[in-house]
Amino acid sequence: MDNKEASRAVDALIPSATSSDHFTSTTQIMDNQEASEAIEALSLTASPSDPSISASQMSLEEKFKIVRSIGEECIQEDELMNLLAKKPQPVCYDGFEPSGRMHIAQGVLKALNVNKLTSAGCKVKIWIADWFAQLNNKMGGDLKKIEVVGQYLIEIWKAVGMNLEGNQVEFLWSSKEINSRAHEYWPLVMDIARRNKLPRILRCCQIMGRSEQDELTAAQIFYPCMQCADIFFLKADICQLGMDQRKVNVLAREYCDDIKRKNKPIILSHHMLPGLQEGQEKMSKSDPSSSIYMEDEEAEVNLKIKKAFCPPKVVEKNPCLEYIKYIILPWFNEFKIERSAENGGDRTYKNFEELAADYESGSLHPADLKPALSKAINKILQPVRDHFKNDQKAKDLMKRVKSFKVTR
């Protein structure tokens, strides 16, 4: 298809929501310092289940602060502001491979982010990438097992508190959606593939947990072209994925340049939580000591946190502190330390800066921080445990998922 045909195809899939002729600059609303302070404050006060006001009551600035707070990086902020000003219900795309048990970053962090987006009036489409998991050889490429894992993950998000009221969150199975609209999907995939050289596609292999040096199958090489097409196929205004998915989202913006499309998907990349052991930049499902699973028992959580890397007086690359910053403080709006009077007495932190300063100075010790962290995580996970013990469907799903061999 030529440039005009491709552009029309994408236009049909993504309704125009912004206009470069009428965009509102972020700096017209607030200066950089004010914006930074507002975003920081909001990231520590947004509750997953207790939105203070409805989206219809929010100002443009308030919506922007909530949505922007999710991203460690945003491409581009002026486009995000303009989108929120022009479109009452922007569409956010998130997706996941059903590839095994769910860890706390995928479970709690995603619930927090989705609830922030819906509180600001966005619609979130969560792409259950079953075909992609098969392409990537997850669960040995067994699509039936992959479907079981997908159902199990949805049960966890329901239990942990993802706000699914009001049809603002939609779970879509890739195999079903692609088959039902194959005439739209595959021409788009082929056009993306035709316009990109193999080295450019190989640079996107990080999205699958692979590297350019890995020996890839033909299916895995095709994967980035499909994920890029998903963004347009789902009519997404915002790509809300982790920093590890950044390259394919940039590919989608480059594709818009190729077909001369002005309205590009906005990239909102969230922070990647590290593993619990030293030097683990990302949690690994294949390493139980690296991550806390969403249905881990209280004793398991306590043991994993007890063994976690947490050097005294060191804030940078400290996984325990990152858990507090990105999970505990946003969830509870505070972090409570319980300790004896001779060790400084109880202390409640309302923001990460105060906690980091105390930890760096040595007035807060890992021996006091770790039990408090375990207690907070267990409080978050208890409804999930209860659901998987009391709901027969959920219990059966978990039993089956635990019996599956995880393949990479």
From TrEMBL:
Lineage of source species: Eukaryota, Viridiplantae, Streptophyta, Embryophyta, Tracheophyta
Location of the region described as Disordered in the Swiss-Prot/TrEMBL record: 1-24
Similarity-based family: Belongs to the class-I aminoacyl-tRNA synthetase family.
SUPFAM superfamilies: Nucleotidylyl transferase
Classification via Gene3D superfamilies: HUPs
Top-level class of the enzyme under EC nomenclature: ligase
Catalysed reactions, semicolon-separated: tRNA(Tyr) + L-tyrosine + ATP = L-tyrosyl-tRNA(Tyr) + AMP + diphosphate + H(+)
PANTHER family xrefs: TYROSINE--TRNA LIGASE, CYTOPLASMIC (PTHR46264:SF4), TYROSINE-TRNA LIGASE (PTHR46264)
Keywords associated with the record: Aminoacyl-tRNA synthetase, ATP-binding, Ligase, Nucleotide-binding, Protein biosynthesis
EC code(s) of this entry: 6.1.1.1
Xref: Pfam families: tRNA-synt_1b (PF00579)
Protein name: tyrosine--tRNA ligase
